Amino acid sequence: MTTVDTHCPYCALQCGIRLGQKGSGRITLAPRDFPTNRGGLCQKGWTAAELLTAADRITTPLVRDATGELVEASWDDAYARIVAAVRSAQGAAGPDAVAVFGGGGLTNEKAYTLGKFARVALGTSRIDYNGRFCMSSAAAAVNRAFGLDRGLPFPLTDLAGADAVLLVGSNLSETMPPAVQHLSGVRSRGGLIVVDPRRTATAALTESDGGIHLQPVPGTDIAVLLGLLHLVTLAGDTDDAYLTRRVSGWDAVRAAVTMWWPERVERATGVPVGELRAAATLLAGASPSAGGAGAYVLTGRGAEQHAHGTDTVTAAINLALALGLPGRVGSGYGCITGQGNGQGGREHGQKADQLPGYRSITDPAARAHVAEVWGVSESSIPGPGLPAVQLLDAIGQPDGPRVLFVHGANPVVSAPDSDKVARKLAQLELLVVADFVPSETARLADVVLPVPQWAEEEGTMTSLEGRVLRRRRVIQPPEGVRDELRIWHELAQLLHIPVQFAATPVEVLEELARASTGGIADYTGVDVARLDAGEGLHWPCPQVGHPGTPRLFLDRFDTADGRARMVCVDTSPVDDDVRPDAPIYLITGRILQHYQSGAQTRRVPELLRGEAGPFVQLHPVLAARLGIEEGDCVRVTSTRGSASGMARLSADIRRDTVFMPFHFPGQGAANAVTNPATDPVSGMPEFKVCAVRVSREWVS
Amino acid sequence: MSSRIVVVGHGMVAVRLLDELGRLTADRSTRLLDVTVIGEEPHRPYNRLLLSEVIADRADLGRLTLPTATDSSGMTVRVLRGVTATDVDRDRCVVRCDDGSEHPYDTVVLATGAAARRPLTDSDERAGQVRVLRTIDDCRELLAACSYPRRVTVVGGGLLGLEIACGLASRGADVHVLHRGGHVLDRQLPASAADIARAALAAAGVQVVTDAELHRLQHDGDRITAVRLRDGREIPTDVVVASVGVAPRTELARAAGLPVRAGVVVTDELRSPGDPQVAAIGDCAEPQSGCSGLLAPGWAQADLLARQLAGCAVSDVPASSAGTGQVVKLKAVGVDVVAIGDGPEPPAEARTVTLSDPAHRRHVQVSVLGDRVVAACCVGAKRVAADLTAAYERRTPLPDDPAVLLLDGLPNSVVPLTGDPTTMPAATTVCRCNGVTKKDIVDAHVAGARDLVAVSARTRATTGCGGCREVVCGLLEWMDDVNPTKDVPQPKHSRNDPGNIHSVASSLIDKEISR
């Protein structure tokens, strides 16, 4: 049996696994000892090989025919359709008539090439990706504060030694279960603090003297954070020497936070004063300036997916800075990246405002550098495009996109106000979707391009801790499937673009590394040989042979003056807040068995047996009020749309809130209900809170 | 021509006004505001509400500072500190100050706040030795007077009085609270709830004396030795601090000939009915609804006035800032009191349910009307209070039976994983990460998997986060008993191997895993 060491295809933890291929061709999968998972795997990981034999795998291009059916077609026909539509749309309305929507699951090589394909082959400014729905608020806040955004600026294993870890809006017991191992140390010292409107499996880790669970009203995380900062500030527990030496903006933040005394926080959040005080005391005592072993402040999507998510993350960073945590071994602030390549995906140019190396597309020096690597003139590179929600919303507008390429994303399920997104996609002249299964978005496409999946491709991924990892091929993709790198290479030729598009991952990584040189996410020293030799390379890796940078900011932050920047932030009302005709909050999230839009995990029978469909978690008191019993079908309705699921009664959720997982399509699509209002800084939509009414649809 | 605004007073409501003006004018260049702020105290503005936190030793006095207003593109701000406004000359539209300066205005905003009332001022020559807590200087002086544990008498059993009392008690002082009424917090709590609060106060080291009318101070030379009550009772004491309410500071308005009742009378637009160029907000103002003495209405007034002054349409004012009902929470060490609504007694038309639990110093009373909480009081019930506050503020749906609101929810639904293996239902999920039930473990054992590695290989239990290892080992020991292997003694299953998951995983690698 041959074996190959690679990583799980799903989340950003990128658990180490070993794949084997038996003589029979069957693929076996087992965990291996890798720092992030230490031999652990969740049910998704264990069953990931089943995806490789998905029954409805797409193995030939599909093209919508005159009768409106998707029918099998040759690659030449599919390409011809695409090229004609691109020419027609751009001829009529200019380069921006074609748009690209990428994904945080694409390898670094594909993310890079997709950005280049958009700007060079299509000449469009309109490229963005589903990471906008994932990491954008944290990225915006972290860039502003530290000048450099790497989800965890330290190895995950560092958490083991801390005396306190504050997790705001992260349910890693469900989203990346093996990561829970890294919390065992802090739990044994009673130092885990979880902020979540639900008593999630993660929140339950605080029980039995593991720490504290704060259960705020949805949309009020920022007030909790301001309250914690208030308490440590007023008590004089701030690290004043650190603040003087390494931080700017503290005076204004300190004065502003005087206004968030704990009784006011309780009124705003529903978190009892005593619990807030206990959390503040724990954090302060764990901080290095108080002689503690260290403290971490970590945020997840629960805190970030709001129309003011950047402010909330900034409040978390301000708290961490006041305690003197970032840039210190054994302490810090971090954001827990979601998608498999959510880190790498945001560095190489898929984002509307960025070029490879995490460079700004408006920075003339960055443009000149990348233009030279690409062999184009600087002026030919378009300016910033539209962030994801606005990009999709522009479809059907006079100057909106007429042709859309979707790669590694399923926005019909994953975007907010998803029914509207489907209506928008229907207005396109041509929708091209590259996928390996007929996702809900692929089913709406005019051209579907079959591509390889994880264990059929080579490349690199960058994990939540900024470590570059090898994704390796164990089997060849089915006949008829073409790699995206090849597709873009061939389309560029058909479009008569006189620029080289490398078609192998090794070549692309070499080009990506050059394009990143001197940028923020500098991959100069990253190459396949070093990764294959087992080197753990965390970017920045700015020279050939550089050992990488597991821990950032130890000497200085990446800002012009080397200081971290504190920014004053305050609370904002929930955009779509409760009112008499919609008196209940809806929050959404992930469950253990499924990943993102579910396009992959809903095709794994064992995972479907574990969690087959949508449900609505609600408190028994609320259920009684609404006449709902366990197992009833419940409809959740906002001003945008509605979704249904089975009632699941649980005292683990606030009485004013219901929860739905967002992995399911159709009638159970939670995102048909969620709010597309976006953060003014990051473009993040307000997935995590909106006002709904809840009713019983039928009895079980 | 820019609009000249003179703000008299630089307390929390004035700071809010300036903050809102700054925000509203940040992106304007059309209308320039020229703002002068006249602050009597020499300090930078500070959060007065936190003075009692300083007394309780939970906050540093130097850290109460509030944000300083700064110029924006649409507004310039000049702040005077340690300067007292002496006169509003409405004929010339100028404010005169004690430093001789004059400040012309188009609008003058009175935000002069309120002064602490002092007892005994007419009757006792040593009334000046009674301390109050209104300013930073008061706070410093009170702490100095109580700098070593001693006997303190607090006159007034309202919110601030109790906060001072509990704060000083937490510093080791021997504290009595004298209250004129029959029970403390009589503006917030009914007697039944206050009795419970009184027990909690006693436990926190604060003795309450009710129906206590202060008569005079006993002294030995300059030193206070006791307070004497009108009914003859005498309480030995070293320090007397009064918290008997505040009086709106109306001197300027009165001298300017403007209508004044308890406070400076203002219209719904917060202007004096006698002169629309004069506005008043905060503790010094008396709108239609009366003087509340609370911060939230003052802030709502500041928000409303800021919108007017910045030229925003009044109809733009969000309904929520027009003033909500009262939620009052005592900031006292060791005593948890929250009162919601408009007074101590529940509205007669409401349905009111009560939980009275004196033995645990707990009292909860909730009044609902239709689908809303309209009043509540909670003593010694922190989480219930927080939940009720959230429900009151957001008007979220209530349970059919309001009695449910008296307790903080139901037991959590997740079966603890440390459960007894014998009583655990077979369908209980033992390993969440891999969806493994007790039945799966039992079946594996019956099928011959007798140690952790074998069971993990068969079921994947313990191979996610590893958190269920303890329970799985317990199940295996139980199964070893009920399903023993013939004549082979079973080893105790190891719960705490270092690198536990890895030891299991490595034994699985290169094996074919199937179920």
TrEMBL record, chain A:
Q: Which Pfam families match?
A: Molybdop_Fe4S4 (PF04879), Molybdopterin (PF00384), Molydop_binding (PF01568)
GO CC annotation terms, alphabetical: membrane
GO-annotated molecular function: 4 iron, 4 sulfur cluster binding; metal ion binding; molybdopterin cofactor binding; NADH dehydrogenase activity
The record's listing under Gene3D superfamilies reads: 2.40.40.20, 3.40.50.740, ADC-like domains (2.20.25.90), Dimethylsulfoxide Reductase, domain 2 (3.40.228.10)
Q: Where is the signal peptide?
A: none
Q: Where is the 4Fe-4S Mo/W bis-MGD-type domain?
A: 1-56
For this UniProt record, give its keywords in alphabetical order, as a comma-separated list. 4Fe-4S, Iron, Iron-sulfur, Metal-binding
Please provide the Gene Ontology terms (biological process) for this protein.
respiratory electron transport chain
Q: What is this protein called?
A: Molybdopterin oxidoreductase
Q: Which organism is it from?
A: Flexivirga endophytica
Annotated gene: nasA
